[in-house]
């Protein structure tokens, strides 16, 4: 059983409800059927029920086990409007603007459902951009207590790969923070290690990546990673975390023996922390394609309740798996 099958099996036992706001997308409709039929979660789609079911029928998609909520006629709409107004009035939002937002934005409506506990998680981003997914999540759900910033990671799984955890990795941050400072990078590392434990269930071995290994190069960009490593150690002294490490030193035992002998992480890393969004985003897309891997994400971390993004190039199966990830997150969030 591969890691995604394990995550789906764990999700089935939790009996959670996940809402998908992008009901106009064919992949979302297919994913709703997959998740419901496989009993990964109870699924809710947002929109006009007659139109959605008619579209699904034309696509050969069976939504008989999927619920549909129309935000325009939902009895809870007024309650959601009042809550959004209360949450955002200090920022200048009027009640009329709250009504307009919840009329026009299914993503905001989905986050209000989550805020009120009417669902256990939200998955969007097949059509919406990452900012359009993140903004309502942070405005309504906000970050979890004690978390300095939200971040994201990708679950990467590669066939016949000798590195990481039998070809399984978490990459972070590949979708949210463009240029984290040393403290932010340390928090991303700590949060991603927690996500690893939740999703994979084994010990994370965290590599703080750089173009330098243990002083092989001198640059302010290297200094940031060194500082982040020190901060992360102070935040969680027991975490297996090391840096700064080049990619080959993080993954390949023979290289690690030469470049970082004695490290508990070098040559064995399964969690890869990139120094900025350029590096992380480029690497996940290249390795997914060149390594014939599966990329699930962006998985949002640090939000108080589970809201997850998608790559706009995702497949229906990717959305189904992100639903399963969201279900597992609901165990510790909310």
What does this structure look like?
- The longest helix is centred in the middle third of the chain and has 18 residues, at 182-199.
- It is globular, with a radius of gyration of 21 Å.
- The chain has 2 domains: 3-142 and 303-329, Rossmann fold (3-Layer(aba) Sandwich); 151-290, Isocitrate/Isopropylmalate dehydrogenase-like (Rossmann fold).
- Helix 2 (26-37) links the parallel strand 1 (17-20) and strand 2.
- 45% of the residues lie in helices and 15% in strands.
- The protein has helices at 3-12, 26-37, 49-59, 77-88, 95-104, 106-115, 130-141, 182-199, 220-235, 247-251, 253-259, 277-290, 316-329; strands at residues 17-20, 42-46, 67-69, 121-123, 151-157, 168-172, 205-209, 240-245, 271-273, 294-301, 307-308.
- The two termini are 29 Å apart.
- The strands form 2 sheets. Strands 8-7-9-6-5-10 form a 6-stranded mixed sheet, with helices on both faces. A 5-stranded parallel sheet has the order 3-2-1-4-11, with helices on both faces.
- It is built from 13 helices and 11 strands.
- Helix 4 (77-88) packs across helix 5 and helix 5 crosses helix 6.
- The mean pLDDT is 96.
- It is an alpha/beta fold and 334 residues long.
Return residue spans where pLDDT drops below 50 for at least 5 consecutive residues: none
Which sequence of SSEs, written as H and E, runs from N to C? HEHEHEHHHEHEEHEHEHHEHEEH
Reported for the largest beta sheet, the result is: 6 strands, mixed
Strands ordered across the widest β-sheet: 8-7-9-6-5-10
- From the coordinates shown, what is the CATH architecture of the largest domain? 3-Layer(aba) Sandwich
Assembly type: single chain
The span between the termini is 29 Å
Structural class: alpha/beta
Helix content: 40-55%
**Distinct helical segment count:** 13
Shape: globular
In total, the number of strands is 11
- How much of the sequence lies in strands comes to 15-25%
The CATH topology of the largest domain: Rossmann fold
Average the pLDDT over all residues and give the rounded result.
96
- The CATH class of the largest domain is identified as Alpha Beta
Structural domain count: 2
Estimated radius of gyration: 21 Å
């Amino acid at each position: 059983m591969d890691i995604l099958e394990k995550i789906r099996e764990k999700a089935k036992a939790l009996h959670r409800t996940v809402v998908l706001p992008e009901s106009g997308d064919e992949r979302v409709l297919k994913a709703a059927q997959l998740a419901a039929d496989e009993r990964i979660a109870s699924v809710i789609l947002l929109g006009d029920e007659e139109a959605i079911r008619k579209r699904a029928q034309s696509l050969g998609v069976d939504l008989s086990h999927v619920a549909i909520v129309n935000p325009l006629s939902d009895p809870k709409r007024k309650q959601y409007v009042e809550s959004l107004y209360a949450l955002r009035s200090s920022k200048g939002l009027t009640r009329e603007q709250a009504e307009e937002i919840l009329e026009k934005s299914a993503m905001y409506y989905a986050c209000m459902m989550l805020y009120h506990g009417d669902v256990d998680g939200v998955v969007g981003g097949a059509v919406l951009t990452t900012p359009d997914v993140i903004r309502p999540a942070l405005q309504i759900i906000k970050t979890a207590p004690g978390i300095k910033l939200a971040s994201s990671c990708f679950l990467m799984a590669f066939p016949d790969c000798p590195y990481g955890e039998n070809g399984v990795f978490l990459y972070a941050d590949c979708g949210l923070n463009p240029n984290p400072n040393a403290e932010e990078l340390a928090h991303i590392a700590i949060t991603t290690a927690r996500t690893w434990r939740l999703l994979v269930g084994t010990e994370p071995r965290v590599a703080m990546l750089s173009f330098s290994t243990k002083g092989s190069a001198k640059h302010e960009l290297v200094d940031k990673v060194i500082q982040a490593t020190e901060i992360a150690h102070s935040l969680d002294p027991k975490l297996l975390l090391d840096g700064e490490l080049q990619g080959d030193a993080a993954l390949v035992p023979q290289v690690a023996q030469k470049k970082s002998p004695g490290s508990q992480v070098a040559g064995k890393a399964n969690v890869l922390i990139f120094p900025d969004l350029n590096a992380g985003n480029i690497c996940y897309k290249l390795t997914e394609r060149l390594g014939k891997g599966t990329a699930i994400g962006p998985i949002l971390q640090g939000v108080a309740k589970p809201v997850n993004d998608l790559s706009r190039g995702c497949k229906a199966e990717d959305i189904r798996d992100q639903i399963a990830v969201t279900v597992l997150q609901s165990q510790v969030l909310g």
